[in-house]
């Protein structure tokens, strides 16, 4: 079961974007921790079970193979304040997330904090315009610079 936090486990294009994102966060004096990059299907299944057939609250709507993490093109982060992760989503915390989200968007990532349904502040992805079905069909974003 793999639930990686390593940037090297991302698709090279997304890994490069992730590194640039981290550099820009650092330049903006925002400490950011990567909590998840690549997840294998087994790990995704365990996550999907949480809040359904296993205790805990639901953290994903994606079944195995249906998360962009499974295709190495998504990563999750959490901003840190005074060495502690900021999970709040209102007031000052919301402002911090918004800043982090904008930095991600500046480097070309899609930020799930903007999604209308199942808003996910920690989640960033770059799919090169591909859908899950494309990845499942074996297509890659290799051709993209
Ligand atoms: Zn995610």
Provide the CATH topology of the domain at 7-40 and 70-136.
Muramoyl-pentapeptide Carboxypeptidase, domain 2
Helix/strand order, N-terminal first: HEHEEHEEH
In percent, how helical is the residue content?
25-40%
Q: What CATH first level of the domain at 7-40 and 70-136 would be assigned?
A: Alpha Beta
The outline comes out as globular
What is the beta-strand fraction? Answer: 5-15%
User: Which ligands are bound?
Assistant: zinc ion
Number of helices: 4
- What would you call the structural class? alpha+beta
Distance between the termini: 30 Å
Count of beta strands: 5
CATH architectural label of the domain at 7-40 and 70-136:
2-Layer Sandwich
User: What would the average pLDDT be, to the nearest integer?
Assistant: 94
Radius of gyration (Å): 15 Å
């Amino acid at each position: 079961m793999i639930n990686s936090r390593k940037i090297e486990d991302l698709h090279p294009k997304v890994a490069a974007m992730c590194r640039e994102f981290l550099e820009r966060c650092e330049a903006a004096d925002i400490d950011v921790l990567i909590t998840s990059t690549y997840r294998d299907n087994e790990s995704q299944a365990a996550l999907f079970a949480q809040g359904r057939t296993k205790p805990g609250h639901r953290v994903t709507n994606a079944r195995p193979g249906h998360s962009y993490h499974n295709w190495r093109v998504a990563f999750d982060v959490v901003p840190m304040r005074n060495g502690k992760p900021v999970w709040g989503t209102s007031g000052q915390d919301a402002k911090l997330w918004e800043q982090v989200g904008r930095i991600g968007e500046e480097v070309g990532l899609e930020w799930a904090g903007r999604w209308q349904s199942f808003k996910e502040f920690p989640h960033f992805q770059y799919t090169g315009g591909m859908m899950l079905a494309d990845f499942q069909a074996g297509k890659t974003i290799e051709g993209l610079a």
